[in-house]
Design goal:
Layout (H helix, E strand, L loop, with lengths): L6 E10 L4 H11 L4 E8 L5 E10 L1 H12 L4 E7 L4 E12 H6 L1 H9 L3 E5 L3 E8 L1 H13 L3 E6 L3 E4 L5 H13 L39
Antiparallel strand pairs: 1-3, 1-4, 2-3, 5-7, 5-8, 5-9, 6-7
Length: 220
């Protein structure tokens, strides 16, 4: 793999809430020798469906193959991948600092204001700073606080992201599956209630991919 062709991709996976799915998904990256940079699992906008937001530094060919393999899993409904320009994304970070250093060093307060962070806990021993934003800003704030000798602990959430599309692709997919097969799809998977109210007439796979896994704006 040519490192010059690598970029950060965000994969959004929708699946049923079944034990073991996470292990199966991460195993695909391991087999492809692609490191996961961040992973966030949460409920989605559709009841009963979970959403995995995964970031990985790789090339377009590898991410397409990874997405295709994930999509083939029985309990996975949809898998799409995106570049940063195709999504809105944020992360949350917490920085635990020594309160004495915070109060004695005015430079730290200036750094907090510079990055639009906020104090959410202050006691005699430690203080907690919260920063919501993009990865590069969170990393930069950590470096500046560390340079002041104030950091006790640092933790950052995985990326959360929403697409720029009007609806989630999984909603469109479930709506079309329900219209074709009723409330059960060909694999015996129940179609969650509340997914049959869309009127979009686009094809099931926006980019005509046989696996429906590629980004809607896949690079040529």
């Amino acid at each position: 793999m040519n490192n010059n062709n690598k970029k950060l991709y965000t994969l959004i996976v929708h699946s049923e809430n079944i034990a073991g799915i996470l292990n199966q998904v991460t195993a695909v990256f391991t087999r492809r020798q692609v490191n996961i940079e961040s992973l966030n699992v949460s409920a989605s906008s559709i009841p009963g469906i979970h959403r995995y937001t995964i970031t990985a530094m790789t090339d377009s060919e590898s991410v397409a193959k990874i997405a295709a393999q994930i999509k083939k899993m029985v309990d996975v409904l949809q898998c799409q991948y995106y570049t940063d320009s195709e999504i809105f994304m944020q992360e949350v970070a917490l920085y635990k600092v020594v309160t004495g250093v915070l109060t004695d060093n005015p430079q730290i307060s200036s750094i907090i204001r510079k990055y639009d962070a906020k104090l959410i806990e202050v006691n005699s021993t430690f203080s907690v700073i919260e920063k919501t934003g993009r990865t590069e800003d969170i990393t930069a704030l950590n470096k500046e606080l560390s340079a002041q000798g104030a950091i006790l602990q640092f933790v950052s959430s995985g990326r959360v992201a929403i697409t720029r599309a009007r609806i989630e692709h999984v909603s469109e997919y479930l709506d079309k599956m329900a219209s074709r097969y009723g409330n059960n799809n060909p694999n015996g998977r129940n179609i969650p209630d509340g997914c049959n109210n869309l009127n979009d007439s686009n094809s099931l796979n926006d980019n005509n991919s046989p696996n429906g896994c590629n980004s809607p704006n896949k690079e040529k």
